[in-house]
Specification:
With 341 residues, the chain is α+β, with helices and mostly antiparallel strands. The protein has helices spanning 2-7, 9-37, 292-301, 321-329; strands spanning 42-46, 49-51, 58-65, 70-78, 85-86, 96-97, 99-100, 108-115, 120-126, 140-148, 154-167, 170-174, 177-179, 181-184, 190-196, 206-210, 229-232, 238-240, 252-256, 259-260, 263-266, 272-279, 281-283. Strands 2, 4, 6, 8, 9, 11, 12 and 14 form an 8-stranded mixed sheet that branches. Strands 1, 3, 5, 7, 10 and 13 form a 6-stranded mixed sheet that branches. β8 (108-115) and β9 (120-126) form a beta hairpin. The longest helix has 29 residues, at 9-37. The radius of gyration is 34 Å and the shape is rod-shaped. It starts with a helix and ends in a 12-residue tail after the last helix. Bound molecules: calcium ion (2 copies). One calcium ion binds next to α4.
Length: 341
């Protein structure tokens, strides 16, 4: 074996490169394996996901973990300024400042500002002798950022960071992992399905989402109040809202279709699916009850054909025995219907 290596320099060199390549691959893979087995020093956003309602306020801490003798911290955290802004924690200074936590708050704080235009938070602080270095353990908070006016979700990413330890008279930079975070704003999006008795096409049901409480009376509401959101069902009866305000801002979902009893969902209107509501046919005169007035109207329209006939409950273009039977079957019923399934 020795002879072979000596004979051909090319072979030796080739093997050497292969070994180097293997070493490189192994060493590149090592930090991942080690990080899983035994987490090393880190700086991170805690909680990693801050869930806020739209327009809401909440705080995240910037913590450092698994560092012994921490003495200095510097970081820049970026966010989408179109989605959220940093609340000013120091009204005595111009600009926007975040909260520096002890013991760094009594140290040499060089920077603790936020830029709500560029979307970044900058921090640089060191402890001062005689303050002892910090053993951070599993997580030590150095700063707190209060977020306000959140309108959309955004990542919170460290674009740079430096951790410095001071031990035995030596200042040294600590290699560490950056754990980014995020602000999450769940979208309030109630949706559901409306079926229309006697029809196979469920389109054209007007659905409203309002900040005003649902009406307690059975009377048909007439016109939409200002500020409500409106949508219309498709042929399958499906509707969906994407509401810009927090869920708690909305107190009532309601809707109607000519010829049918109205329906509603009282507060709290859930985000996501409300299920399906089945509307009974026969409310020709829009008073939200099916009674003799409706039957009388159908009777007087009996035999008529054309589009947009009030008494044409099933929408087949003619007022006939089918429409009369639908209304008669539901005689005595009143809306609004609330039995979602
Ligand atoms: Ca009626
Ligand atoms: Ca008809």
């Amino acid at each position: 074996m020795d002879a072979q290596f000596k004979v051909s320099g090319n072979i030796v060199r080739g093997i050497g490169l292969t070994i180097m390549a293997i070493v490189l691959v192994v060493s590149a893979a090592q930090p991942v394996g080690l990080a899983l087995a035994n987490p090393g020093p880190w700086i991170g956003v805690i909680p990693s996901t801050l869930t806020l309602s739209s327009g809401g306020t909440g705080a995240t801490e910037i913590r450092v973990g698994e560092v012994n003798d921490l003495y200095g911290v510097e970081f820049t955290l970026t966010f989408n300024p179109a989605c959220v802004r940093v609340k000013d924690n120091d009204s005595t200074r111009s600009g926007v400042q975040i909260e520096v936590l002890a013991p760094f708050s009594s140290g040499a704080v060089v920077n603790y500002t936020a830029d709500n235009t560029a979307g970044k938070v900058m921090f640089a602080a060191s402890l001062i002798t005689p303050t002892a270095p910090v053993n951070t353990g599993t997580g030590f908070a150095v700063a707190r950022i209060t977020w306000e006016n959140a309108t959309c979700s955004t990542a919170l990413i460290f674009s740079s960071s430096k951790l410095v330890s001071y031990s035995g008279g030596v200042v040294s930079e600590v290699t560490h992992e950056r754990r980014s975070g995020q602000i999450d704003i769940p979208v309030f999006a109630p949706k559901g399905t409306v079926t229309l008795e006697g029809r196979t096409n469920y389109s054209g049901v007007e659905v409203y989402l309002s900040q005003q409480a649902c009406p307690s009376v059975t009377a048909m509401w007439t016109e939409p109040i200002s500020g409500v959101l409106k949508t219309v069902t498709n042929a399958a009866g499906y509707f969906e809202f994407t509401a810009p305000l927090p869920a708690a801002s909305y107190s009532c979902l309601r809707g109607y279709k000519q010829g049918y009893l109205s329906f509603m969902k009282r507060a709290p209107v859930p985000s996501g699916s409300l299920g399906t509501i089945d509307l009974l046919a026969g409310n020709v005169n829009q008073d939200n009850c099916i009674n003799i007035f409706d039957l009388t109207q159908i009777g007087s329209d009996f035999g008529k054909s054309g589009s947009d006939l009030r008494s044409d409950l099933n929408g087949d273009g003619v007022v006939n025995i089918l429409d009369l039977t639908l209304a008669a079957k539901n005689f005595g019923q009143c809306g609004p219907v609330e039995n979602w399934r």
